[in-house]
Prior knowledge:
By secondary structure, the chain is an alpha/beta fold. Helices cover about 55% and strands about 15% of the residues. It has twelve helices and nine strands. It has a six-stranded parallel β-sheet with strand order 4-3-8-7-5-6, sandwiched between helices. Strands 2-1-9 form a three-stranded antiparallel β-sheet. A hairpin with a 2-residue loop joins strand 1 and strand 2 (about 10-15). Helix 11 runs antiparallel to helix 12 (about 220-245). The radius of gyration is 18 Å and the shape is globular. The N and C termini lie close together (about 10 Å).
Amino acid sequence: xxxxxxxxxxxxxxxxxxxxxxxxxxxxIQQRIPTQHVVINAxxxxxxxxxxxLREIINESPLINADGQSIVWAGRFLGADIPERVTGIDLFxxxxxxxxxxxxxxxxxxxxxxVVRKVIDLHKKEYPDxxxxxxxxxxxxxxxxxxxxxxxxxxxxxxLFVAFSSPKKEYWIHQYKDSLNVPFMMGVGGSFxxxxxxxxxxxxxxxxIGMEWFYRLIQEPKRMFSRYLKGNTKFIIKxxxxxxxxxxxxxxxx
Length: 254
């Protein structure tokens, strides 16, 4: 299947719709080849420009979606055909739905104990046939990681959801992906907290006009000020410099 892969602003990106992404994930699970999935947004592009290790991990990932509307707008401004956002939380939700139909085994890893339990309870209530291979909260010492990886391996999961912040989730999955025996692994950030109702997601109309970041900013101004206001300014400057250079960083990958 054509993954419509390009290079954009120092990152690879697969210019896919949600439907196309789900079809590729179905193939990945059937083939059972350990695959790390990532999403990119303005903040991730900024982190990648400063962090070589993170940039290498992301660019090694075979499947990279545009999580932020900023990526869609920037890509189109630079001449890329990015059809839509495929956000981490929306993909997470769609995969749970498909897992219930296809019999895929899910492992939930991250957030607080009561949060991850509530997410599973909500999903099981909505999808009674859902198979939960296992779960674990996200509070652990680095020394416990090998044992956690062993537990995930023994669960025979088909999909692993890792609810850490960046870049911790990218690092952890990359370090252990070859020993987990899980075909599809994705970081879902704060998605568990949203599903459980601990934090709120922006209204749909704000999501549709690309202002979801602003909703998070007004919810947590102290924590998000640097990430969004300073970070978005840095991202815009990077996009403009790329445009001035003649789209030198926009390339199709075969």
